[in-house]
Design goal:
Helix content: 25-40%
Order of helices and strands: EEHHHEEEEHEHHHEEEEHH
Structural class: alpha+beta
Number of strands: 11
Radius of gyration: 22 Å
Number of helices: 9
Largest sheet: 11 strands, antiparallel
């Protein structure tokens, strides 16, 4: 069921609710297959009987329907994949955050000046002085080998002992054509300690030589808990999944939290880029 918190401009909405709201906001009838979602929105007071949106939704929907910049966050871990994101508009910034096992995501308006802090919070970026040293700062192999190791985490129960899990990951990497030592041991440790692997991408309209197009940036990180943060250099983001094969090279480089913060900041277009995207002088 959809719900909302007036005090913090928060809304819990499933994809079906957002589809209905988008159609109604555009002056269209909501699709028949989303009749139940429309009824739920009506029951909780986010729309009225005539299909008009509550004024509470106007900043959110205005931004979602016409964002200047769209940022997507895909986070994968032991509970599966979660999709989060951010819409940056002229006046508002809207964030949506998923929750494991639930259909609804939380949509909220955030202070534009705090959007980098919010993105850092969404990836759980922490400046921790206790990260352990590793024998290597770079580890490389193939996508196929990494997927073989990660499959152990996805296919086993959370209650299995850490020792058994690590041994299973080591065997899977070796059998899948993983690297030699000492990289094999390091990659085993990284997968065993993996809290989440995530990728952030940003996109906005761009104009080059009079032609309309899309500018995109991105990067991916492994959060390995006590072993720190590892930037995925290969395959480099943004990369279409169709271009990635089991034989594609895979490389991780250890970085600190400050570097991750800088990469988050670099995702955002500067004022000139936004001006060109909007196609009008003085737009910011």
């Amino acid at each position: 069921m959809p719900s909302f918190d007036i005090s913090r401009s928060r809304f819990r909405l499933a994809d079906g609710h957002l589809i209905v709201l988008s159609e109604l906001a555009a002056g269209n009838a909501s699709p028949d297959e989303f009749a139940e979602a429309r009824k739920e929105l009506l029951d909780c007071g986010l729309i009225n009987g005539e299909g008009k949106l509550s004024p509470l939704l106007l900043p959110l929907m205005k931004t979602v329907l016409a964002p200047g910049v769209v940022i997507t966050l895909e986070a994968a871990g032991r509970q599966g994949k979660l999709h989060h994101g951010m819409f940056i508009g002229d006046d508002h910034v809207v964030v949506h955050e998923a929750w494991p096992g639930t259909a609804e995501a939380e949509y909220s308006c955030v202070e534009p000046r705090m959007l980098v802090w919010k993105l850092a919070d969404m990836v759980n970026l922490q400046q921790s002085p206790v990260a352990r040293e590793t024998a290597l700062s770079v580890v490389g192999t193939t996508i196929g080998a990494v997927e073989a190791g990660l499959a152990i985490l996805e296919g086993e129960r959370l209650v299995r002992s850490a020792v058994e899990e690590r041994e299973a990951v080591h065997r899977a990497l070796a059998a899948g054509g993983g690297p030699g030592e000492p990289s094999l041991t390091l990659l085993t440790d990284l997968i065993s300690e993996l809290r989440s692997s995530w990728r952030l991408t940003s996109a906005w309209r761009a104009r080059a030589e009079g032609e309309e197009g899309t500018e995109a940036r991105g990067f991916a990180v492994w959060d390995c808990g006590p072993l720190g943060y590892w930037l995925r250099e290969l395959p480099a983001e943004p990369v279409p999944e169709a271009r990635v094969t089991p034989d594609s090279p895979f490389r991780l480089v250890r970085v600190d939290a400050k570097t991750v913060w800088a990469r988050i900041t670099a995702l955002l277009p500067d004022t000139d880029e936004l001006r060109h995207a909007a196609g009008r002088p003085g737009a910011a």
